[in-house]
Structure formats: C-alpha cells, structure tokens
Amino acid sequence: MSILPDKSKDWQIQPLNRKGLHLRYSRYFIPTLKEIPAEAEVISHQLMLRAGMIRKLAAGVYSILPLGVRVVRKVEAIIRKEMDKSGAMEVILPSIQPAELWKEAGRWNFYGKELLRISDRNDREFCYAPTAEEAVTDLVRGEVRSYKDLPINLYQIQTKFRDEIRPRFGVMRAREFSMKDAYSFDTDQDGIDHTYIQMKQTYKSIFKQCGLKFKVVEADTGQIGGSSSHEFMVLAESGEDTIAYCDECNFASNIEKVSLDNCEFAYDGNHLPMQEIDTPQLKTIGEVSEFLGVSPQKFFKTLVYKTDDENNKAVVAVCRGDHSINPVKLANAIGVNEVTLANEELIESVTGAPVGFVGPIGLKKVSVYGDYSIKPILNGITGANKKDKHMKNVNSNRDMTHVVWKDIRNPVDGDSCPAIGVGKLSLAKGIEVGHIFKLGAKYSKSMGATFLDKNGKEKPMLMGCYGIGVARTIASAIEQSHDEKGIVWPVSIAPFKVIVILLQPKEELVVTTAEMIYADLIKAGHDPILDDRDQRPGVKFNEADLIGFPVQVIVGKKSVANKKAEIKVRKTGKIQDVPLETITDTIISTLDGLG
How many CB atoms lie within 10 A of CB 470? Predict the structure, then answer.
C-alpha cells in the first residue's frame, strides 16, 4: 500500500483534511510521570502509573485513564469474542445484591470480612458483590423449568469489590476491580464436565490472544466452593502465588493442592533418650542449628495458628525445620475456613512459652497437626515450651503420639512429582489471571434451583463458574513483558499499535507527511496515534518507549527530504529506513510479524 497520491512515481505532498483525525497526542489525556512513585511495589504498578494509565483514588481503588481504558476494552473484546464463540451469553447482573440471597446460599457469614456489607435507608442489608453465584442462581431458578431449557452459560464483565485487608500491587490486588465471571447450568455430570473442558479451552485461547505465557494448574476451591478447580497462572517473578510443576509430565498445581504424602526425608538409627538443653536467647531454627551444629532438617518447626472457629480458636502445626506450613492445607485439614499465625499472647496462653521456644511435646490444651515429613526424623530438636530451652532426641513415633498426621506443608524444589512419582517438582511464581470451578449442586441445592428431567423428576442443576480478572490480565502482561525503558505490549492489547512521531511540528513538509502516514494507517484499519506535540525528540522517544507502542514511525526533516521515514520496533529496538511509497505496507507487515 502506498501513500503516494495518484500513482505518481515522484513523492508529492498534498494538504490533508484534518477533520476526524482526533487521536493526537497533544489532545489526548496521557499524564506520564518521570519518577517511580514511592507507593508502587511491583513493575506493573510503577509502569501503569508512569504511563498515565491509572491513578489512585483510595486504598485499592483506582481510576482508569484513557490509555488504560483502551487496553481494558481490547482485553474485553478478546474475552467477548471467545466467550460468544463458546455459546455463552452476556448478561449484566447487579453489583449490589441483597443479603437474603447470600444467607440462603450460606455464604453471608462464611465469606468473612472481605464481603463489603451495606444497608439501605430502610436498614435492609446488601453487599457489594465480590462474585455473583447467588444472583445468577436466583435468576436462572426463576426462569428454567425443564431439562429442555438446559444447558445455559451466562457471563458478564462487571465491577466487583472485595474488602482486602491489605490491598497492594496496584490493580493486581485492588479492592474494586473488573472481572469477567461466567456461570454454567447443566443437567448431569457429563454435561458439566463437557462445559468445564470447553471453558478451559476457551480460557487458553483468550490468554494466548492476550500474548501471555501461562500454566493451567490444579487449585483449591476456597470460598467459592465446589469439587474441583483450575487456575490460569501467568509466570512472573512478582507473582504472589507459587506453583509446582513437573518437567517429566504435564503436572502443574498451586502449592496448596500438591499432595506430598510420600515426599519424606528418611533417617535411620536408634532412638536416644529425650533431653532438655539450654539455648539462651536462641529463638530461630537458624540460631539453634548453628549453636548445636545440627541441620535444620532435624528440627521440628512448631507454629501456633489462630482459626476462625469459635470452638477451636488455636491449633499447633509442626513441619520439618527447612519446610513451611501451607495455611490453606492446614485449614482444610482442620475443617475451618481460614487460619492465621497467632500473636504472642495467644502463643503463650496455649504453650506456656514465648515465641521461639514452642514445641509439640506435652501440649494438652490444643490440637497438634504434624506434617508427614517429620515422621522419619531421628533424634530431632524442638522447643521445650520453656524460655531459653529446647529438647533434643525427639522422635515422633515415641514422643508425639497425640499428633494428628496430615499433609500440611508447602512443596520444595526437588520433591517427587505426585502424578508419576519419578519426576521432580520445580517451583515458580505466578499471577492468577483466571480461575474455573466445578460447583456441582452447591448453590442450586441450597437455593432451590431445580429442573424436571425427562421422567418428570425434579433435580438440582449442576453448576460451574469461570472468572477472569481483566485488570490483572493487563498487569500480568506488563509484569511479563517490559524492560528498563518501560512497557513492551503484546500487539493485540496495546493501547495503540502504532505511534507516528512528528519531530518538527513547525515544518510543513514533515507535518503533512506524518499526517498522510497516519491517515493511511487509519484507512487500512489499524490503530495509530499521532504525536504532534511541540516537544523535544528525546521526550517523545522516551514516552513512546515508556508507554510501549509496538511500532514507532519517526518522521523528521532529514528523512522526509530523502523521501523516507524510520520504523522502530519497540520489542527489539530495531530501526530501519523505509521509502515513503512502501511505508504503510512495511508498517502492516511489521505488525503482522509481531503477532
């Protein structure tokens, strides 16, 4: 495609009508920042603030600015295209939901403090919904009567609110956020299995089109509930979640779902008499290990946790000294919703000892849960439940008969793969961008969402739910693709695919050439913005790199005099001089090459 008019062999400049060419940098609201904001902990938060995409309104609550909105809309368009292709239908459900529905489903108290509860002028209770299982179940139960009406899969892209105790990392752990949530209703297990597999494939397609590198991992169902779930994890060092995967097979799982029953470190030998020893001011396993000359693998690490169960407020968990307790596994083992590390007062009331000297021996006021990996420890070390004292020669089969044995630890690099046994696990950080669940009849039974089958028998619908964090997807793309200059966007979700940088805005030949390139890209159906500002070239180049436009077209006095312009690829930094008669075709082929 040529921008030469009338098929002339000579480059001719003709004035261009500026009407409709509104996407000019000089008129676009892009409040960039030169310095890294002190509040920003991770690179996506830093770059979204610096690139003028977001601004903080309150803790965990952000305004999305024009550049950010363009990226949001592109991610939403990919989501809608793939969800519609799957047969799902879009709805818009209320974000403010009545407490009665949540109480009917049994989640009003179960969900905890993250649920923002509010009252209207008549003191009726509502919540600002963090999810919509109750609302969609209420909708469907009122309309569906027969198996002939099923299956149904409804989705929405809606604002949600979770009152995070510590919102951080910008939009990755915000309190208010945009989420695509879908809910399927089937007649039987085969139906829900089919829908679940279909949604898994749909999600893979969505995240691939967003340019993300990700893994699909088994996950805990948490507060949503159900029989099984999978998370879609974008691999990034800044991720809050840790996943375990095996290079020998396709196994991948969030760490709370990795079964480690057989991952044991075995010791051989004879049991020695248990003995109390002095360890003055030595509180940590590292300090005691160095003092005694004993490996941390021979320690019984003992921690006290507070639970959300009024009848079982504290429990003790024990793992090997070089391991760590997984709170989700522990909560599931106990049968509670949540556990948190106890404060000093609760620790001392339960064990009689200050922090650093706690051990499992002799505890009678509290339940003690031990990880399987401590069973083989021979003549180990632990706290004596006395200040400045530890016990040595502790053996679990002789001295810890009161312990309840469970798999409650986090995996470590090199643990055996639970899927095939011969492979070894590796750990990686990940950001959860999507989560799918098989809910089964969890909500339909409690809320009476039933249908009549072929035989006229009433049965509960079987449900699935499927969520994608829109802003998280965007932040994850930045975490995964950036450099020291700024964002390196995947082409599919970049705010603009191309920026045309006009270097001398007072030179008529340069202006007209830049505008013709810009207009030709619009006619070709592409996505340009024209930087027409009266700014130094360095400022324009730095901001183009910061924002991360995939292709930069640089139009200056010198290049135009030679009937050329420069094309720079943001991802590689490669710059080439291109004749003006082939500039549009070259830009388009460059974009195609970037995916």
Answer: 22
Please name the residue that has the structure tokens 């046994």: 421
Structure tokens at 524: 């070709």
Token pair recorded at residue 116: 């923002």
Question: What is the Cα–Cα distance from 72 to 64, expressed in whole angstroms?
Answer: 9
| Kind plus residue range of the DSSP H or E element containing 116 | strand 116-119
> How many whole angstroms separate alpha carbon 228 and alpha carbon 222?
10
d(CA 408, CA 319): 8
Helical H segments across 402-524, by residue range: 442-447, 470-480, 508-523
Q: Which residues pair with 241 in a beta bridge?
A: 430
Helix or strand or coil: residue 510? Answer: helix
Contact yes or no for 139/93 (Cβ under 8 A): yes
3-state SS, 159-205, equals EEECCCCCCECHHHECCEEEEEEEEEEECCHHHHHHHHHHHHHHHHH
Interior/surface letters 190-205, b for 16+ CB within 10 angstroms, e for the rest = ebbeebbebbeebbee
229 Cβ partners below 8 Å, 6+ apart? Answer: 218, 219, 220, 221, 435, 436, 437, 438
Contacts with 422 (C-beta within 8 Å, 6 or more apart), sequence order: 248, 416
Structure tokens at 82: 């793939």
pLDDT tens figures, 52-109:
999 999 999 999 999 999 999 999 999 999 999 999 999 999 999 999 999 999 999 8
Name, in order, each residue with C-beta under 8 angstroms of 411's C-beta and a sequence gap of 6 or more.
244, 255, 258, 260, 263, 425, 427
**Bridge partners, residue 139, by sequence:** none
As separate numbers, helices (DSSP H) first and strands (DSSP E) second, the chain gives 15, 31
The rounded distance, in Å, linking the Cα atoms of 31 and 51 is 7
Q: Domains in the chain, please, with CATH?
A: 5-23+496-593 (3.40.50.800), 44-259+427-478 (3.30.930.10), 275-406 (3.90.960.10)
CA angle, residues 269, 272, 275, in degrees to nearest 5: 145
Residues 436-482 pLDDT 10s = 999 999 999 999 999 999 999 999 999 999 999 999 999 999 999 99
389-394 vs 275-278, strand pairing mode:
antiparallel
Question: Two tokens at 358?
Answer: 């706690």
**Helix-strand-coil split of the chain, %, nearest 5:** 30, 30, 40
| Amino acid found at 371 | D
Residue with tokens 């024009």: 66
Tokens of 580: 């003006």
Report pTM.
0.85
Instruction: Give burial (CB, 10 Å; 0-12/13-18/19+) of 304.
Output: buried
Rounding to the nearest 10 degrees, give the CA dihedral for residues 65, 71, 73, 76: -130
CB 563 within 8 A of CB 573: no
Partnered with residue 409 across adjacent β-strands are 325
What's the rounded Cα separation, in Å, for the pair 428 and 239?
9
Tokens describing residue 570 = 């943001």
Beta strands in 503-582 (DSSP E): 528-531, 551-555, 564-569, 575-579
For residue 91, what are the contacts with CB-CB under 8 A and spacing of at least 6? Answer: 136, 139, 154, 155, 156
From residue 195, alpha-carbon distances to 121, 434, 436, 523 in Å are 42, 16, 11, 40
